[in-house]
Automatic annotation (TrEMBL):
SUPFAM superfamilies: HD-domain/PDEase-like (SSF109604). Gene3D superfamilies: Hypothetical protein af1432. PROSITE patterns: HD_GYP. This is HD-GYP domain, c-di-GMP phosphodiesterase class II (Or its inactivated variant).
Length: 355
């Protein structure tokens, strides 16, 4: 496959990956044949590039496909102030705890300064954005959730800096993996799976190569798929051999990945994702880190539109004691009803309504 600017598409080209809207919904399925009508509409939908089938480029990484001009443009889109604002707003929006905003602002500024000061790392982070907006946004989300957990664990300023930077760069090694594998909708072959596993080692080596970035941040890239009982990768570490940062980012990574739509599966509901996380305590992750996540991360932030199991749709207007039972304003024609889901055990949020 190869990445092509929309204006350079030809009739008959075949999409190698789905084309998605900024919210993640699929606009065009993988395998769609390009017509003149589709080519004309893509710019109107805000789509500048797509991936098309090309048998001459079966196993090239994103780094090998992206032109210097495209990479230069991608780097320009990573605005320091904007990225800082997104992360700070995300932490505020998703945490149940009181924050020292000056301290948070200082830590996040230091994280982004470190990113911007290393050309190799910044270029690779920009490549993530070109690879797929999901991977880029996922990295930001994992940073947000990790900082929330770290804050709840009373980490020092230095620890939060190292954790946040490592979380932001945890998937940086994917820029060295063939994009046909990363976005494959079907089951991976043994060889393809081995290549995916390698993104942890490649990310670790890439961050170390940049120099002056804390070694603990590099170890986040290496360890975020390691698991408590030794079932993870790449080194099948167990227990205390895995750094707390590896566990924390692993939990954040799992939550964000499960609640996102993937080429090979639909998104899991937040309720189902939490059940999976709860069952992973003492098996995949230390129980105390799972509990910290559930105690401190707001699962349904204010303003989320949600659908209940009785079919009614409402908006989250407040948080309850249980993260799965927020306070909902249900719209009923010209009227509305306020429901504290804590008081209605027969009701639960079936799904978030993404528009």
């Amino acid at each position: 496959m190869r990445r092509v600017a929309v204006n350079l598409l030809k009739e008959g080209d075949i999409l190698a990956n789905p084309v998605k809207s900024p919210s993640g919904s699929i606009l065009l399925a993988k395998g769609t044949r390009i017509t003149q009508n589709i080519k004309n509409k893509l710019p109107q939908l805000g789509i500048a590039f797509v991936y098309i089938e090309d048998s001459t480029l079966p196993y090239l990484s994103i780094h090998e496909i992206i032109s210097e001009d495209n990479l230069s443009e991608a780097i320009k889109t990573i605005k320091k102030r904007s990225l800082i604002s997104i992360i700070i707003d995300g932490v505020q929006r998703h945490t149940r705890e009181n924050l020292d905003l000056d301290r948070l602002n200082s830590i996040v500024n230091n994280i982004i300064d470190e990113l911007m000061d290393h050309k190799l790392i910044l270029s690779s982070f920009a490549e993530l954005k070109l690879l797929d907006n999901y991977t880029y946004q996922h990295s930001i989300n994992v940073c947000i959730y990790s900082l929330i957990i770290g804050h709840s664990l009373k980490f020092t300023r230095t620890q939060l800096f190292q954790l946040g930077l490592g979380a932001l760069l945890h998937d940086i090694g994917k820029t060295k993996i063939p994009i046909s594998i990363i976005n494959k909708p079907g089951i991976l072959s043994v060889d393809e799976y081995e290549k995916v596993i390698a993104h942890t080692i490649l990310g670790f080596e890439l961050i170390k190569k940049a120099g002056k970035i804390p070694l603990l941040s590099a170890h986040v890239a290496l360890q975020h798929h390691e698991r408590l009982m030794g079932s993870g990768y790449p080194r099948k570490l167990k227990g205390d051999a895995i750094h707390p940062f590896g566990y924390i980012v692993g939990i954040a990574d799992m939550f964000d990945a499960l609640t996102a739509e993937k080429p090979y599966r639909p998104r899991f509901s937040i309720k189902d994702t939490i059940e999976i996380l709860e069952s992973s305590g003492g098996n995949l992750f230390p129980q105390e880190y799972i509990e910290k996540f559930l105690q401190t991360v707001i699962l349904y932030p204010l303003g989320y539109k949600v659908k209940l199991n009785n079919g009614e749709v409402g908006v989250v207007i407040g948080q309850g004691k249980n993260p799965l039972t927020p306070i909902i304003k249900v719209i009923k024609g010209e009227f509305y009803q306020i429901l504290d889901l804590e008081e209605y055990p027969q009701l639960f949020i079936e799904e978030v309504v993404y528009e």
